[in-house]
Structure formats: C-alpha cells, structure tokens
Amino acid sequence: MNDLKENLNNVRARIERACKSAGRNPADVAVLAVSKGHPAERIRALHALGQRAFGENYAQEALAKQERLRDLAIEWHFIGPLQSNKTREVAAHFDWVQSADREKILLRLSEQRPEAMPPLNVCIQINIDREPQKSGSLPEAAGQLARLAGGLPRLRLRGLMTIPRMASEAYDPTDSYRRMRDLFRTVQLSGLAMDTLSMGMSADLEQAVAEGSTLVRIGTDLLGPRSVSRPRP
User: Fold this and answer.
1) In terms of residue numbers, what domain contains 8?
2) Phi/psi of residue 185, nearest 5 degrees
3) 3 state SS of 63
4) How far apart are the C-alpha atoms of 202 and 47, rounded to whole Å?
C-alpha cells in the first residue's frame, strides 16, 4: 500500500508542476489508472487511496476483475483496440470507451448499450502520427466520426484520444500533442460539445498537459510492473 500511495502522490505532483508551468489548473487534469496486467487486489488497494477511474485493454481480463470488485464504485474505461465481436461485452460493462475509431464500432456500441444504463461515454481514438501498426482513425476523419457519435442514441460524445509515437531520446512527442490539441479545437468549433482530450502517459505526461490534455493515462508509474499475463483473444 505504501508504494501505491507514494506513486499516486508522485503522479499528482508531476501534474501539478506541469499545470503550473502551463498556467493551468491541476483540477482540470484527471488521472486514469491503466490497470491492465494488474490483479484485482492491486486495483482495490489503489481505489482505497482515492483513485476512482481505471482503464483496461482486454475485455476478458477486465470482466473478471469487475466481478471481483463489484462492491466498489469504479469508473471503468475501455482503452484498447476494440473488435466487433467484443462490442456487446464492452457496451454492457464499461462507463467509457476511449478507443472508438470507426463507424461500425460506434453503431454497435450504440445498439448494444443496455437501455437501463446511462449513455456510454465515448472518445474517438486518433492515429495522430499515422503509424500503420496502431489503431485509430486518421485525423481527417475525426469530425465525421465525432458527429456520428454525438448523434447516436445511448452514446455521449466526450472527446478525442491519442497514443502518439513513443517518447524517447530521439523523439519528443510535443508536436504530436500540439496537433491533437489543434484537431480537438477544430472539432469543437464545428459545433460539437467535447470536454475530454485524453493524451499523455507515464513518460510524457508533462508534454501532454502543456498541450491541453484533460486526462492522462498512467500505468507503471502508478501500479508498478505488470504481473498478469495477457489473455487470449
């Protein structure tokens, strides 16, 4: 528990420093704990420290954890690539989907969201650097997909999400985040109400916050090394 408390405090402190440098309010940047590969007990311990939003990449792994943690008020985000044959499970068991990237997925999520549940919060995932190995819509399709999501029943358009090229000594993702910020503003100016720009991870949250991120997705720096094997599809 002590390591989790220290990790959470460190992440919050980094966000505060980044916001101060950018002239932003730290309250405007939320933390999503990326819990893929971590056991339910680890999530429970971090939840006890005040973390409420958790992100999972694989439906099968997530559903098993949700069953074990159903006594907790957790906001569950699906953040991994979403296949058509998984949309029903995801629509019925998550509060957010951040990785909607094509029309077919949006239509299925809307059709399969149970009527007894609140509308499903949706972000359109953008492949801002046009990397062929990554999921995500190309930037020029962002407006069309956002308009579709905003008009479908059982969905609530929240914003855009991206995973840019990995930060390294050879690459600074600031330009990628700047282009995402500009795209986000362009879609907003088209008349769509959006409040979420999901970008930034452990290695580059400072750059993402400087360019307007409202939600950073933090895995290892919060929960430590992963201990659960990747499930079979």
Assistant:
1) 2-222
2) -65, -35
3) helix
4) 19
